[in-house]
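Lab notebook, bench 4. Continuing the backlog of folding jobs that were queued last week. Each job is logged with the same field layout so the records can be merged later without manual cleanup. Today's entry covers Roadblock/LAMTOR2 domain-containing protein, a 142-residue chain. Filled in by technician R.K.

JOB TYPE: sequence-to-structure
TARGET: Roadblock/LAMTOR2 domain-containing protein
LENGTH: 142
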Amino acid sequence: MATKRMTPGFSDQVMGLVKALRTDAPDCVASGVVDMATGMLLSYETIDNHPPEVLDLLAGATLDLFQGRTVVMIEDVFKERRGITSDHHFFQEILVNSENLTHLFVRMTEQQDVVAVVVCRKSVNVGMLFAQVRRVVREYGL
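JOB STATUS: finished
OUTPUT FIELD FOLLOWS
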């Protein structure tokens, strides 16, 4: 039975989440947490050095993926058609394959503006990646 990892403050929880993702996600080369409300990369761990401007752009790219103008329009249309009035977002997980890497973006359950980001080698078993990341995200429950 898994035990829930408890840490005192939000900042500690975010750093713990990033570390757990980096350690537990298979073939992981980087992990991070983005706050879409502020547009900031809150914390990250990586095995490589990346230019600061690339890391700064990660938050903006994450925001575009989950809450870009067209995405919000699609969500609004579905909410209207289904009679939903909540601020809940439909897009919860996004998998992006680039030339050499697989990127998984997962919206946190409790705080919808917080997104966990995991970058793995392209050879990763995607099923295992989803299973491990979902488990860690559920454990941290942000």
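OBSERVATION: Residues 52-67 form the longest helix (16 residues).
SIGNED: R.K.
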